[in-house]
Amino acid sequence: MSKIIEQYNLEENKALETTSNLIFRAFTTSDFNITNYPHKINSYPQIYNYIDTMHEPKAHRYFNEKNFLVDKEEKIIIEQINEKILNISKNDFNKVIVPISATLASIPLLRVIKKIKEIFNLKKVNIFEVGPGSGYFGIMNYLNGDKYISTENSQAFYIWQNILMKNFSKENDFFDYVYDELGNLKNQNLVHLPWWYFANNHFMEKLNVDIIICEHAIAELDDNALRYLMKLSNSLLKNNTQRPKFFIFTKYGGSFAPKHDYIKKMFIENNFQKINLSSALQIWVHTNNEVAKLASNFNITLNEDMTRSRIIKKYNRYKYRKIIQKNFSNYFDLIDFDPNKLINSKHEDLFSAHDLLNHKLDLKSKDYDFLDYIGKEIPKKINI
Fold first, then answer.
1. Is residue 384's pLDDT more than 50?
2. CB 38 within 8 A of CB 49
3. How many CB atoms neighbour CB 5 within 10 A?
4. Which end of the chain has less Cβ packing within 10 Å, N or C?
């Protein structure tokens, strides 16, 4: 089992032999380093710490039945994941663990992808995610029939993601650039890239991507890495076809002073415009798209600018909605879409977070114990 760690370290060290300090600094785990968040493991048993992590402080929100419900399809996909993770945790770590919060945190973005496929009548989309964390968003979309490519700069998360992808992929449908021979690369629908491949723009610009995701991570990027991602996104999402292309996230992430305005500026400088009005979601589209041009005309991206009259902003939003509805009807449902709300579900098909935990767990996360002890709110009445 330790070989999986040894091989990653070996491949990273090889990459560092031909990587400059400037590039390494740009793509290293800078935010984790500053906040002292563990991102490297030395033994295989340490991996279980990454099964359900980074969402513990807000986990209690999902278990408030009034605030967070899932529909039948979402329940089924979470149960599929829980069942597989239960087997992994038993077999590999001799523990009984299923994700409590990391899967639930992926549901809003899953709804966005589902909505896009529905309104544009797409059976499959190609998703590229930067910084997948525990990795469940990608698995959910793969199980829904999409192609999913991701990159990760944390050794520990990368190794966990590899285990996760390997366990969920269909036969010969997963390729990992750290662990697999390049001769076995075909048209796999589940693809895993280490940071040193991501840092190679000549390699990356060949990808066929419909949607780029950087959830809870875009504000964690080093400035040069952010600029790189924006330039790369400009190349990948510059749409010369009728197929819609998007850069999407719901939260900026980041541990320190917000740099949201700076990130917006980077998007605009790289020919993107935010096209939706919901504060719960960021949908950015390249300006060669007519909807993005319209959003620019109505100053949608900078609608939070308080120097503008509230009446003018309200009137501009009204006009913007009317024009979208008339001329770009496919995009209309995205303008006010709130991913925290359910899509077209009957009341009898709704489930709370408690309904998703079917197993009595013999391990209570040390993180929840710690948060509880220091007086932070944690999920109540969980069967653990």
1. no
2. yes
3. 19
4. N
Residue 383 included in any domain: no
Please report the pLDDT score of residue 360 as a whole number.
52
Q: Which helix (H) or strand (E) holds 9?
A: helix 3-16
From CA 192, how far away is CA 291, in angstroms rounded?
32
What integer best gives the mean pLDDT of the chain?
89
Task: Give residue 370's pLDDT.
Answer: 80
Q: Which domain holds residue 115?
A: 3-373
Q: How many angstroms separate the most distant Cα atoms in the chain?
A: 62
Domain count, the chain: 1
Decide if 161 is inside a domain. Answer: yes
Cα–Cα distance measured from residue 334 to residue 339, given in angstroms and rounded to the nearest whole number = 10
Q: Is residue 311 part of a domain?
A: yes
Spatial distance between the Cα atoms of 105 and 107, rounded to a whole number of angstroms: 6
In the chain, how many H helices and how many E strands?
A: 16, 10
Q: Are 233 and 212 in contact (CB under 8 A)?
A: yes
Residue 325 belongs to a domain with what CATH number?
3.40.50.150
Calpha distance 132→106 (Å, rounded): 10
Q: Are 211 and 125 in contact (CB under 8 A)?
A: yes
